[in-house]
Amino acid sequence: MARYTEAKCKLCRREGTKLFLKGDRCYTDKCAYEKRPYPPGMAGRLRRKMSDYAIQLREKQKVRRMYGVLEGQFRMYYQRAEGMKGVAGHNLLFLLERRLDNVIYRLGYANSRDQARQLVRHGVFMLNGRRVNVPSMQVHEGDEIVVREESRKIPVINEAQEVIARRGCPEWLESDGANFKGVVKAMPTREDIQFPINEQLIVELYSK
């Protein structure tokens, strides 16, 4: 499966905003975007007028990179969102938020979605009593996610638990750090997604 192997901070600089791809580092002064808040490359500091298409494309790329999904996967999510009841843009964000790797990250068992994806693939978590290893699995209301007993001493999980105290846990999730357990209390709403996203631009892009 294809994956991005270059510096993740370049993606934040390219999209002109923090995507929080490197966990706790993104909240400190070491963040590359804080030091160089302009696109990478020799022409990065030049001001260019962007077309409507370019603005829509950058918004789509920003969301796709933030959640760590490939282009084909992202298009599949949009097609699925378009066939659901409600606003297509909102549905798209809900599907991305309900990915298991994102939920693991939101609960504070990983410092980034990329790290959460790796932990899920290694079978570190149990969903409703069953071991899972599919990062793209969709969670549902009432689902219970538990760190397996033999995996609770993994350093990155304990480090992430310290970070979640500063980052905070969304209201639609409940994290019980002492018991290495998380519960999906409800489905996410648009208000639960605090990251600045203009999903209408993505809808306009795919509607062309």
Textual characterization of the structure:
With 208 residues, the protein is an alpha+beta fold. It folds into two domains: 8-96, Ribosomal Protein S4 Delta 41, Chain A, domain 1; 100-187, Roll (Structural Genomics Hypothetical 15.5 Kd Protein In mrcA-pckA Intergenic Region, Chain A). Helices cover 42% and strands 8% of the residues. It is built from nine helices and five strands; from the N terminus they run αααααααβββαββα. The protein has helices spanning 8-15, 32-35, 52-67, 71-82, 88-97, 100-107, 113-121, 155-167, 199-206, and strands spanning 125-127, 130-131, 144-147, 173-176, 181-184. Strands 2-1-3-5-4 form a five-stranded antiparallel β-sheet, with helices on one face. α4 packs across α5 (88-97) and α5 (88-97) packs across α9 (199-206). The longest helix is centred in the N-terminal third of the chain and has 16 residues, at 52-67. The protein is globular and about 50 Å long. The two termini are 28 Å apart. The mean pLDDT is 83.
Q: How many discrete structural domains?
A: 2
The CATH class label of the largest domain is Mainly Alpha
Number of helices: 9
Question: Quaternary state, please?
Answer: single chain
Q: Overall pLDDT, averaged?
A: 83
In what order do the strands lie side by side in the largest sheet?
Answer: 2-1-3-5-4
- Beta-strand segment tally: 5
What's the CATH architecture of the largest domain? Orthogonal Bundle
State the helical fraction.
40-55%
What pattern of helices and strands is seen along the backbone?
HHHHHHHEEEHEEH
Low-pLDDT runs = none
Structural class: alpha+beta
Approximate shape: globular
The whole-angstrom Rg is: 18 Å
Portion in strands: 5-15%
CATH H level, superfamily name of the largest domain? Ribosomal protein S4/S9, N-terminal domain
Terminal CA distance reads 28 Å
Q: Examine the coordinates and then state which fold CATH places here, giving the name of the CATH topology of the largest domain.
A: Ribosomal Protein S4 Delta 41, Chain A, domain 1
* Main sheet specs: 5 strands, antiparallel
